[in-house]
């Protein structure tokens, strides 16, 4: 890594004109970073175009902007773009159809740590998962840290980014996909039938599954815990569940 370059700056575009052109070009953008106090004609246009396209806008301090941009002249604005282009949910299902396999998807309910998301992507690729779905808000996105943590797996794993995870769950259920939420106080995961079309929902590192997401699941499955702690790291738990699905499908 070169002097003055942060890991974040590897997928950041800084400066008013470069940001505006990147937005106009149709580049896959995760979010706009806006330094407190930044204003003026071009900034107004940038913000308006981001709102028009549904791009998230996050206000941060000028000092934090300096850090993210690695010392580059940012003029108060920067965009974080995806390390890999996002897919659609339909494309994930199409991948399963092309392989002649029942869909096997991972839904990440507000996984915020990019290292966890990267690890989940890496294990998912190893287990034959057809795709991963993440929400736009309160979730790690496909940034440089995720790509690095995935250790190359992001090149082969489709990730869809959706506005409403609950709506996606309902849509998947209508298409015959069974939704299994990973959380405490659920059924024994070793006695659950994962052989058909299924999606595993992995909850937030701190509070687990959201209440509405859990309610929409067809079943809640749990890992046995015999120690003094009552939960595993999200990516570790996800890995155990994914390998069980692969085993149940006769692929392990």
What can you tell me about this protein's structure?
The protein has 252 residues and is an alpha/beta fold. It has two domains: 8-81, Ribosomal protein L30/S12 (60s Ribosomal Protein L30, Chain: A, 2-Layer Sandwich), CATH 3.30.1330; 89-248, Alpha/beta knot (3-Layer(aba) Sandwich). It is built from nine helices and ten strands. The strands form two sheets. It has a six-stranded parallel sheet with strand order 7-6-5-9-8-10, with helices on both faces. The chain has a four-stranded mixed sheet with strand order 1-4-2-3. Strand 2, helix 2 (41-53) and strand 3 form a beta-alpha-beta unit. The protein is elongated, with a radius of gyration of 20 Å. The model is unreliable at 1-7 (pLDDT under 50).
User: Which oligomeric form is depicted?
Assistant: single chain
Q: Could you describe the largest sheet, including whether it forms a barrel? A: 6 strands, parallel
Low-confidence stretches: 1-7
**Mean residue pLDDT:** 88
- What's the CATH superfamily of the largest domain, by name? SPOUT methyltransferase, trefoil knot domain
Count up the domains: 2
Question: Radius of gyration from the CA trace?
Answer: 20 Å
Structural class: alpha/beta
Helix and strand element order: EHEHEHEHEHEHEHEEHEH
What is the topology?
Layout: E1 12-14, H1 16-25, E2 29-35, H2 41-53, E3 56-60, H3 62-68, E4 77-81, H4 89-99, E5 104-108, H5 114-126, E6 131-135, H6 144-149, E7 159-162, H7 165-174, E8 178-188, E9 198-202, H8 211-216, E10 219-222, H9 234-248
Parallel strand pairs: 2-3, 5-6, 5-9, 6-7, 8-9, 8-10
Antiparallel strand pairs: 1-4, 2-4
Helix pairs in contact: 1-2, 5-9
